[in-house]
C-alpha cells in the first residue's frame, strides 16, 4: 500500500535490493521468504520481533531517491511480492518519463511526494476510509496480530506489551497481545517460533507473582496448563488491563453481557503515548468511572468526565483540605487525600450558582458553588479554573433542561388515577409510638455543623455517629443518603409508580415464588401480620422483578425488603433494594447467588489471614461455606435479633460490604475456643447460633419481637448477652484495616474461580444426563461439550451470518441442557469437523448440514441443544448399519430447502415437515422405529439421496468401488419404483372405476394412449438407464480441478407416465400432508418453457449443479383435456430436453432402500466402517477456522518450529 513519504537514512541496512532505476528502489527484508537468508536472516527476523519493527508486517518496500541525494523516502510497502510489484509497475509506467522532464531535484521530490499523497487521498475517498484515533504504529500492530493468529476484523486488539514467556526453564522474548476475547503471545528467536492463544473465558486464575528469580511476573492458569509471563516494562498497567478483560469475559459467561465500545470518547491528544488505542482509552475510562461510582455510590450509568487536584474549605474545622475534585455529567464530588477526613457529593440538580471567586495569594483560583439548601462550597487551587467552570456550566445546563422535561412528563402522568396511587406513598410500616426516638443533641450538632441532605460533609465524625446507632425516625432517610438510592429516586420520578401499574395482574415464575414467600418475611413483626404490610411487600418485590428480569426474585430478598419497608416508604424501599441488588451486593440475588459465593471465597481468604489458628479447623468442619451464605445474603437479619441486626444494616449502608466481613470475622474470633473444641459442623453451628441470638441492643425503643432463629436453637444454657455496639466497635478495632480496594482484588480472583466452577458443574451435569443415552465415553462427551460451547462463544465474539443473535440464545437461568444452543450457521462449522458424512465439497456439505440440522431440531425453533447434537453424532459414530441408513433416509424425506409452492384454491402452501418430526419424535421416545411407519421417498427426494451418496464418497480410498455400487443400487431402486408404480396405478384405477363408472368409460382411451410413454420410461429405466448408471462412474470426469465425480444419474430423463387428460396427472402436486421437494431455487437458474402456473410444474435440482428437471406443458390453465403436444417424451438422440417431469406415483420405501444397499458389499463396509472419534475431536480442537467457527480448545499448543 502507498504510505505518506518518510525519510530513511540507510537504505541498504538489513534490506536486499531487488529492482532499481534512477529514482526508485524495490527492496526485500533480509530473512523473509524461502531460505530465511541464513544466519543473517535469522538475526534480522529476531530483531524485527524483539524491536517490534514494521518490517514484520510489510517485508517489501519502495524507496524514492534523487540521483545526487543521500536521503531516501519510503513511499510504499507491501505484505507480498505481488502487491509491491503492482506499485512498482505503476511507477515505471506513469512516473519515470515525467520525472525525466524536471531539472531541479527539489521539484522532483515535491512532485513525487505530492503524487503519492494524492493517490492515498483518492483511495481513502473511493473506499470511504474514515479517520480513527488509532495511531499508525498501532494499526501496524493490529495487522501483525491478525496475520500471526488468523484473527478476523471483529476481534479488536486492545494493547500489546513486550515480555518474556517461560517455556519450561527457558524464557522466550516476544510480544503479548491483549484483545477483547483472547490473550496471545508470539516469539521468534533465531528460527524458533512460539505462538500461544488463550480465551479469556477459559482462564481460571490470573495473579501477579514475585519470586527471587522472577520479581515481576504474571501467571495465567487455565484448566489444562499454567503460563508465566515476565520482564514487563509496566507490569501494573498490564495486569490491570488483563484483569479488566478477564472480568468482561466472566460477565459474558455469567449473564451474557457482551462488550460494546464507547464511541463518545474525546479525541486523541498529541501527548498520548503512541501505542495507546482508542479501545484501551475506552477501557481505562470505564475503569476510572467504575472506581468513581463505587467511591461515591453513584448510579451505574454515571461516567466520569475528569478529575483535578484542589482544596476544599471546610467550615466545621475552619481548614482548607487537600484532595481531588471529580466532575461527571450529573455530579461534582470531592474526597480528601487523607481517606477518612472528608468527602462530599454535590448533585448538579441541587446546584444554583457556579462562579469564579476573586483570586489571592492565600486563596488562588477559587470557585464557589451554591446549592438549593443554602450551602456554599469553596474550592481553590484549581489548575485550569476557566475550563473547569465552563465544563460544569455545560453539564448544569443539560441537567436543568432534563429536570424541566421530567417535570412536564410526570406532571401529565400524575394528573390521573390518584386513587390507584394513594397507597403507594404510605409512611414506613413501623408506626408504633415507641419506635420513634428523636435525634439527640449530638445529632442536632452534627446537622448544624456538617449540613443535612445529600450535600452534607461526610467525615470521621459521621462514621462515629453511625456506629453509635442511627435514630429510628432518621434511619430511612440516612439509608437512602448513604446508599446513593436517593440520587436514583430523584432522577427517576414516577418510575416505581409505572412499574407497579405494569406489573399488577401479571404472573410468571418470579411472582409465584414471591407469593410463596410473602408470609415468611418477618412473620414475627406486627407490620407483616396484616394485609397492608403484605401488599406493600408484594408490590415492591414484583416491581423489582419486572425491572430486572435477570434477577427476578431470589430467596432472602423478601427478608431484606421487609426490613427496608419498616423504615422507608414504598418507593424509597424499592430504590434501596435497587441499590442493594445492583451496586452494593452485585450478583448476590441472581439464580446462582454468584456474588454470595464470591464473597464466601473472599471471607475464607480473610479468615486464613486474620484468624489462621481457626481457619484449618473451620475448613475441616465445612462451616465457613454454611454460615457465610446465611449471614451475607440477609445481612445478619435472619440470624440476629431484629433490633440488633438493623444496626448492622446501618453500618453496611455507610461502609459497604467490609462491615459484614469485619463483623463475621469478629464473631469467629469471639468464639475461637469453643469452635476449636467442636467435634462436628452441627456443634460449631450451635455455638455460633447461640452467640448471635444473644446479641442485644439495649438502646432500642422497639417492642420486643420474638426472634425466629432463636426458637430453632437448642435448650441449653443461654449465652451471656453481647451488646451490638460493642461488637461492631470491636470489629473495627480488630479488623478495621481491611480495605475496600483489597476486597475488590479478592473478589476478582474469587469470581474467576466461582464462575469457572459453575461452568464445570454445568458440563458435568449435562454429561451425566446424557451419558446413558449414547455410546460416547464421559471424556469424549466432555470434549464435545467444550467444542459445542466454544462454537457458541465464538459466534458471540465475532457474530454469525445466520441472522440470529447468539447472545440472546445463552440464558444461564435455563436448565443445564438448554443453556448453550447453536443455530444452523454454527452447526455447519461443527458438522464439517466432526461428522463422518461431511462431504469435501463445501456446497454439498452445507446442504447436507441443513438436512441434518432440521432432522435434529425436534421442536422446530431453529436451535439445537447439546443432547440433540449428540444424538445425531452418536448414530454416525456408533450406530449400526440400519440406524445410519435410517438417518440418511429420514434426512431426505424432510425438505432440505423450501423452493416449491403450489397454488391451489387461492392459497400458497409451503412445505411443512413438522408432521414427520412429530412422528419420528414418538419413535425416538420408544427407542425403536417401525420401518413401515417411515414415509415413502418420492422421485425428487430419491434424486437428492443419490446426490448425497455420490458426494459422500469423494476422496474415499474405495472411491471407484463405491461409485459402482451406488450406480447398481440406484438402478435397482429405479426398477423397484417403476414396478411399485404399476401396482399402485392399477389399484387406484380400480377404485376410481368403482366410484364413477361413467367417468372411467370416457377416460379409457386416454389411458390407452398413455401406455406408450410409460412403456418408454420402463424400457429406459431397465435398459439404457441401467447401462449408463453402471458405465459412467467407471471413468469419472474431473471438474474444476477438485476431482468431483459426474453423477451417475446425469443421463436419466424422467418422462410423463401418462397424458394430462387422464385425470390422474403424473406431475407431483404437493399438498400440506404430502412430502415435498426440498431443493432451492436460489443457487441456480431454471430452464423452463411454456406455462409458469405454479400448480402445473415443479422445479427440482438434478444431480449436477447445471442440470434442472422442470415440468412444463403448453396447455391452458386449469384445462384437463389438452393435447400432450410438446410435453411428450424425448428420444436419446434428441439432446437435452427443455422440460421433464417428476412422477407422482413413483416411490420407494425404506425397506427397499435398505435391502438394495445390503446387496453391495462396498456400501456395507463403508457404512460399517468404525469412526475414530478421538482423532476427529483432536483435529477439531486444533483447527482454527477464521470467521464464525471455533478456535481450538482452551489454549493452542505452543508450536516451536526450526
Automatic annotation (TrEMBL):
Residues 1060-1069 have a biased composition (Polar residues). The keyword Metal-binding does not apply. GO terms for molecular function: calcium ion binding; GTPase activator activity. Residues 988-1097, 1111-1139 are annotated as: Disordered. Residues 469-656 form the Rab-GAP TBC domain. Gene3D superfamilies: EF-hand, Pleckstrin-homology domain (PH domain)/Phosphotyrosine-binding domain (PTB), putative rabgap domain of human tbc1 domain family member 14 like domains, Ypt/Rab-GAP domain of gyp1p, domain 1, Ypt/Rab-GAP domain of gyp1p, domain 3. Residues 1117-1126 have a biased composition (Gly residues). Residues 844-879 form the EF-hand domain. GO terms for biological process: system process. Residues 1050-1059, 1127-1139 have a biased composition (Basic and acidic residues). It comes from the Eukaryota. Keywords: GTPase activation, Repeat. Residues 1080-1091 have a biased composition (Low complexity). InterPro entries: EF-hand-dom_pair, EF_hand_dom, GRAM, PH-like_dom_sf, Rab-GAP-TBC_dom, Rab-GAP_TBC_sf, TCB1D9/TCB1D9B_PH-GRAM1, TCB1D9/TCB1D9B_PH-GRAM2. May act as a GTPase-activating protein for Rab family protein(s). This is TBC1 domain family member 9. It comes from Oncorhynchus kisutch.
